[in-house]
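Chapter summary example: a protein plus guanosine-5'-diphosphate.
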Amino acid sequence: MFIHEYQAKSLLNRNQILIPEGKVITTINDADSVLNTLPFKNYVIKAQIYGGGRGKAGGILTVDSKEEALEYVKTILGKRLVTTQTGPSGRIVRTVLIEEKVNIEKEIYISLTIDRKRACPIVIVSPEGGIEIEKGKTFFEEDITSPMGLYPFQKRRLIYSLGLRESSDEFASLIEKLYRLFIKYDITLLEINPLAIDKMGRLVALDAKMSFDDNGLFRQKEISDLYDPGELDPLESEAQKESLNYVKMDGNIGCLVNGAGLAMATIDLIDFYGGKATNFLDVGGGASSEKIEKAVRILLEDKRMKVMLINIFGGILRCDRFAEGLVNASGNKEIKIPIIIRFKGTMIEEGKRIIRDSGLNLIWADSMEEAASIAAIRVNTDQ
Ligand code: GDP
Ligand code: MN
């Protein structure tokens, strides 16, 4: 689960990490009064969306007067922001953070994350922080192998790599605080970029991105309360309510699959045959026919879909249950797009009978390869 920058910063602040003073607004009407209450005149205006790369995409602006600040807030609030991390459809800016502009002496990159191969948390730093971080070449890493955090020699090594002399004690204590936060809140990624050294040598978190382990949320009420469903696509949030694993993609072949691995393999095969999937959808192992019905309805809502590809390997989810859900979802409304189905496994004959009796017109494929190639040919020849 992600949270917004302003929420991540407030968490940092409550744990004695320095952040710029600021406030958020969600409507233009609040902008004027908020700007009046802020005791400074040099502002950074920041679009709050789930996704980075805002700096380069026009989602961050520094201005030196209240009037300019107001004007920029007006141009950005409610608008769609497309960055390298949002995908082509972008995200609507529904919250704007107004902060005091910090005079930056140096920008550092620091993050904590889990290294799955090494099976431990790691700290990554770069002396070249800021918006060009993807191009950066100088990264330094330290494994955290002790529950107490980094060893003193590791901290010294990072401080040396970053060329921090005056701020070394402050940096050492910052890393400790970040590590404690990382553990306490089941964080999977905690990234501060840039961590600024200001003119007075203080370390200030100018940006903060946090991602949390979904499996830990049951014990992190403070965090799960911060979740912003508005950042999800409406179909994605509907799918989430039904606990369907659904992710929108850019293509026009809708996928209905049971099992995440099978769904990934299906999408790969579609790609192999020259098609593109509209979505990733794993209905899960033990889905009921009601859940299948809901999944089919969610797929049909997406008008970009030109062909539906169903790939079901019946196991715990029996083919007859699936068939019932599919037939119920199609109900009395006519499905206009072609549906290609690869159907195998438990109760297959019963499943096939239910579908045939319903009068639903499907294209039956014997294998995944056949199903994916038919789907790709269909969309590419526009039949
Ligand atoms: P991102 O592009 O989505 O990661 O957004 P950031 O919050 O990192 O902002 C992008 C860039 O804006 C930063 O790398 C800074 O160079 C700049 N920036 C952000 N806050 C401040 C600030 O308080 N003062 C100054 N001078 N620049 C800032
Ligand atoms: Mn950033």
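Key point: The longest helix spans residues 168-184.
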